[in-house]
Design brief:
- The structure is a single chain.
- The chain folds into 3 domains: 10-90, 2-Layer Sandwich (Double Stranded RNA Binding Domain); 104-201, Tyrosine recombinase, N-terminal domain (DNA polymerase, domain 1, Orthogonal Bundle), CATH 1.10.150.130; 216-411, hpI Integrase, Chain A.
- It is built from 16 helices and 7 strands.
- It has helices at residues 10-15, 66-81, 86-101, 104-115, 121-140, 149-161, 165-184, 198-201, 216-227, 233-245, 249-253, 286-299, 320-328, 339-350, 356-362, 381-400; strands spanning 23-28, 31-35, 41-49, 52-60, 260-261, 266-269, 280-283.
- A hairpin with a 2-residue loop joins β1 (23-28) and β2 (31-35).
């Protein structure tokens, strides 16, 4: 006959000393206390369900007393008698508790921590300040599984009511990325911001043909985000070069190495690729030359500056840079690749006070001299070279956080 197990007593448990290896003190009915070499005493229940041996844990002694452990054992037996696996019940309760504790704020902070290494310090500060000011006070304490689409809409409208349209747009992006992070971890079943259109929510939002950032502080934030971009090197170079040359997106994406003279710092775009069907000359600032020389090490033996990932015989897709903007947190209603042109036109005119005809000519717009004659590709080239270097230096100043002094027209 098998040896009868003597039930445990409080005295026997208290007197149990650590040993070089784990050992068990049995109480009967599958309940035992595991004593570890470190002195820990942990309650376990061994049972069988659907023909397989299973095990439950009831916590450490003395937090879980002998009486508590025996009650847990009896509860488990009742579940087994009714055909229910007590282990699954415990797992479900644990998941339910975790879901209750997994608030929107907790998930958002985890999402932020994951992305923080790839962001600049200023971008991190901006993101966190917006989370703490605009989101957490409204839905931060709610379990993320319970946050509904209508609450996000209400949140965005509340921000709109303060006149912060751009902030509302950015908050919508943040919420979408946080829910996507939770969805990927299977903490939620859907993303309530999916297909949520800002234009359908915010009545004061004004549609623009080409969204652009033109306020210097926001430009600085965008430039820092580009420098911190963790996508492919080719796309990052395109993003860094775009504000320095402010050509049309297609002209940049299809740029060929044969068009560039890095020694004279000039980019000659042929008429066939220009909207005006006229050749165009882009003076290159020192910063642009630095980017191009680094890029040349990678793609210089091919035709295109920015080849497609699938085939170096084709330029990169026209959505590559747009996708990069989305990855950095900028949606199509805030910034586009074409927006660098509006950015340059606005700041060169209103901040740096460059002559409008110099700017328009560099934008490859139709410009005529006082006698009605069209400027050719080399018109005012010396002045435009100064302008392009001045512009690049100004952008560097913005990125560095320096106080940028508004210049006068005497600069050129």
């Amino acid at each position: 006959m098998p040896k009868r197990i003597q039930p445990l007593t409080e005295l026997k448990i208290k007197n149990a000393k650590p040993a070089p290896k784990d050992y068990k003190l049995f109480d009967g009915g599958g309940l035992f206390l595991l004593v570890t070499p470190a002195g820990g005493k942990l309650w376990h229940l061994k049972y069988r369900f659907a023909g397989k041996e299973q095990k439950l844990t009831f916590g450490p002694y003395p937090t879980t007393s002998l009486a508590d452990a025996r009650q847990h054992r009896e509860d488990a037996k009742k579940l087994l008698a009714s055909g229910v696996d007590p282990g699954e019940i415990k797992k479900a309760k644990k998941e339910e508790l975790a879901a209750e504790q997994r608030t929107f704020e907790r998930v958002a902070r985890e999402w932020f921590t994951k992305n923080e290494p790839a962001w600049s310090a200023s971008h991190c500060s901006t993101v966190m300040s917006r989370l703490e000011r605009d989101i957490f006070p409204v839905i931060g304490s709610r379990p993320i599984t319970e946050v509904k689409r209508v609450e996000i809409i209400s949140l965005l409208k509340g921000i709109e009511a303060r006149g912060k349209i751009e902030t509302a747009k950015r908050i919508k992006i943040y919420c979408g990325q946080i829910f996507r992070y939770a969805l990927n971890h299977e903490w939620v079943e859907s993303n309530p911001t999916a297909d949520l259109k800002i234009g359908d929510i915010l009545t004061k939002a004004v549609e623009k043909h080409h969204a652009a950032i033109t306020e210097p502080k926001q430009v600085a934030e965008l430039l820092r985000a580009i420098d911190a971009y963790t996508g492919t090197f080719v796309v990052k170079c395109a993003l860094q070069l775009a504000p320095l040359v402010f050509v049309r997106p297609g002209e940049l994406q299809k740029a060929e190495w044969s068009e560039f003279d890095l020694d004279t710092a000039e980019w000659n775009i042929p008429a066939s690729r220009m909207k005006s069907k006229q050749p165009h000359l882009v003076p290159l600032a020192k910063q642009a030359i630095t980017i191009l020389r680094e890029l040349h090490k990678l793609t210089g033996d091919g035709k295109y500056l920015f080849p497609s990932l699938r085939s170096h015989k084709r330029p990169m897709s026209n959505v590559a840079m747009l996708a990069a903007f989305r990855r950095m947190g900028y949606d199509k209603e805030e910034m586009t690749t074409h927006g660098f042109r509006a950015m340059a036109r606005t700041i060169l005119d209103e901040v740096l006070q460059i002559r409008p005809d110099f700017i328009e000519h560099q934008l490859a717009h139709a410009v005529r001299d006082p006698l009605g004659r069209a400027y050719n590709r080399t018109s005012h080239l010396a002045e435009r070279k100064k302008m392009m270097q001045l512009w690049a230096d100004y952008l560097d100043g913005l990125k560095a956080g320096a106080k940028v002094i508004t210049l006068t027209r005497t600069a050129l």
